[in-house]
């Protein structure tokens, strides 16, 4: 028998080697089960530390962000002014702009925080748009006229009279025929020019555009500071220009309004998100922190388990439903559900935000105007997150800008608009899917490596159990061979 011909010393060494390997593989399997090396690696990769992988995603997000602009074109201006019909609109869009986000002036502070300034640039995407914003013209409300008169409605009588008289002389018609580009990014207006010359502390620009004001807010030289959440390795906002709150919304003693400490500035959220988490988003152009909460669990087209977070119900709730919104109540009609004042960010002009087409808003807002048709599939505000990594997979941030016109006097041109919430534009910031870098990262960390780890753990466990048994068999076989040899020697001696 070939086994018997193997020298006993080799059998002893083989038995010891197999036993040692079995112990090694078994211990390795136990360590893999106990320590979970893939999770350790994942934490290291996704932990935001200066100049590591996750930091790079935060600093220069690889996401393709598309800004889609839809404008409400007036279809019956004269009939509305004559009091014959309510104001009617038709939505025109989208005009699509690709947005690039990057952080500048990044500094790592001694207390573990990061300070930075965010910058955004946009590029018009003609092939994705309905037309050319430089050529397409629309009939639109005269924003300088309505805005300035509305802003002065709370002033003393002599001021209201003077502004009303000047606006009649300088303002032009109630509706203007403007190109899309002028409406979004600014056009020359006598009222705005006059206001910027005589009241530079209030209005320090000579051209007014809806999107231009948003970009101006986003690209102002505001210094944000972010702090590391202990144990999570994720950054959230600590303060903005040295304050944990936005100064537009009152003094520092207020504990809720304008509070942005703990908010997230796309696109990295905490890992292993619980379903009951409420996240706060912040973008300076939106003027207010935006709370989102868990809505539902799903599986996306890539096979990932996802959590969808939608706009919180209390974000634009009236005071009767959410008393904490009282300090956001500057000039908006706070008794109506679905609109929120952001006038402090627009120089006192009563701009109000809502969901597009007054989705989830008080029915009165839809009754007062015509042509709007809210649809949750088109107009909801949500983000889809991979809960294990905290990385965003899809984003649909949709916000509508409106002019909330109060009671105005001393200008017959603005009187038909009194107490009307006039829809202006709605914007969608859209990410339709994860970029290749994010997808590869998720596949590697949460699909490939866990499977490899499980296979290795099972294989090592099998070897850890099998090799000692083989070693024992070899050892027992060796003993049997020794016993047989001893018996043979005794037989030879007896002969």
UniProtKB/TrEMBL annotation:
Primary location: membrane
InterPro entries linked to this entry: CD36_fam (IPR002159)
Pfam families assigned: CD36
Record GO terms (molecular function): scavenger receptor activity
Ranges that cross the membrane: 455-476
Alphabetic keyword roster: Cell membrane, Glycoprotein, Membrane, Transmembrane, Transmembrane helix
Keyword Nucleotidyltransferase carried by entry: no
Compartments in which it is found: Cell membrane
Gene Ontology cellular component terms for the protein in this record: cytoplasm; plasma membrane
UniProt record similarity statement: Belongs to the CD36 family.
PANTHER family: FI07620P (PTHR11923:SF104), SCAVENGER RECEPTOR CLASS B TYPE-1 SR-B1 (PTHR11923)
Protein name: Scavenger receptor class B member 1
Organism: Photinus pyralis
Lineage: Eukaryota, Metazoa, Ecdysozoa, Arthropoda, Hexapoda
């Amino acid at each position: 028998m070939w086994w018997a011909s193997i020298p006993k010393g080799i059998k002893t060494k083989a038995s010891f080697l197999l036993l040692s390997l079995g112990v090694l593989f078994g211990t390795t399997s136990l360590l893999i089960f106990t320590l979970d090396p893939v999770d350790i690696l994942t934490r290291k990769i996704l932990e935001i530390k200066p100049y590591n992988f996750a930091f790079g995603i935060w600093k220069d997000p690889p996401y393709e962000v598309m800004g889609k602009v839809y404008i409400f074109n007036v279809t019956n201006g004269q009939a509305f002014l004559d009091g014959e019909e309510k104001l009617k609109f038709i939505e025109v869009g989208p005009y699509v702009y690709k947005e690039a986000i990057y952080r500048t002036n990044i500094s790592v502070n001694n207390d573990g925080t990061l300070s930075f300034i965010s910058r955004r640039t946009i590029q018009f995407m003609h092939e994705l748009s309905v037309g050319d914003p430089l050529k397409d013209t629309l009939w639109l409300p005269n924003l300088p006229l309505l805005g300035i008169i509305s802003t002065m409605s709370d002033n003393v009588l002599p001021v209201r009279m003077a502004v009303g008289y000047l606006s009649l002389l300088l303002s032009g018609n109630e509706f203007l025929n403007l190109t899309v580009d002028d409406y979004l990014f600014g056009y020359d207006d006598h009222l705005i020019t006059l206001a910027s010359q005589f009241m530079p502390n209030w209005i320090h620009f000579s051209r007014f555009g809806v999107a231009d004001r948003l970009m101006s807010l986003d690209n102002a030289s505001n210094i944000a500071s972010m702090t590391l959440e202990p144990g999570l390795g994720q950054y959230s906002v600590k303060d903005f220009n040295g304050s944990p709150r936005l100064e537009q919304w009152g003094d520092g003693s207020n504990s809720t309004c304008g509070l942005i400490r703990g908010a997230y500035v796309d696109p990295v959220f905490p890992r292993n998100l619980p379903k009951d988490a409420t996240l706060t988003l912040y973008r300076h152009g939106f003027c207010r922190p935006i709370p989102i909460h868990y809505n539902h669990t799903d599986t996306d087209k890539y096979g990932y388990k996802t959590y969808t977070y939608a706009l919180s119900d209390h974000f634009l709730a009236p005071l009767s439903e959410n008393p904490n919104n009282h300090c956001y109540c500057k000039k908006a009609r706070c008794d109506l559900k679905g609109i929120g004042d952001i006038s402090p960010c627009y120089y006192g002009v009563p701009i109000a935000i809502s969901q597009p087409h007054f989705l989830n808003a008080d029915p009165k807002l839809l009754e007062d105007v015509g042509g709007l048709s809210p649809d949750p599939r088109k107009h909801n505000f949500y983000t889809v997150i991979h809960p294990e990594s905290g990385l965003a997979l899809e984003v649909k941030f949709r916000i509508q800008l409106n002019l909330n016109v109060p009671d105005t006097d001393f200008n017959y041109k603005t009187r038909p608009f009194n107490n009307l919430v006039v829809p202006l534009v709605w914007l969608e910031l859209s990410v339709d899917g994860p970029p290749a870098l994010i997808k590869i990262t998720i596949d590697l960390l949460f699909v490939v490596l866990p499977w490899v780890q499980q296979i290795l753990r099972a294989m090592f466990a099998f070897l850890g159990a099998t090799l000692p048994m083989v070693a024992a068999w070899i050892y027992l076989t060796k003993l049997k061979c020794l016993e047989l040899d001893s018996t043979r020697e005794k037989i030879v001696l007896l002969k």
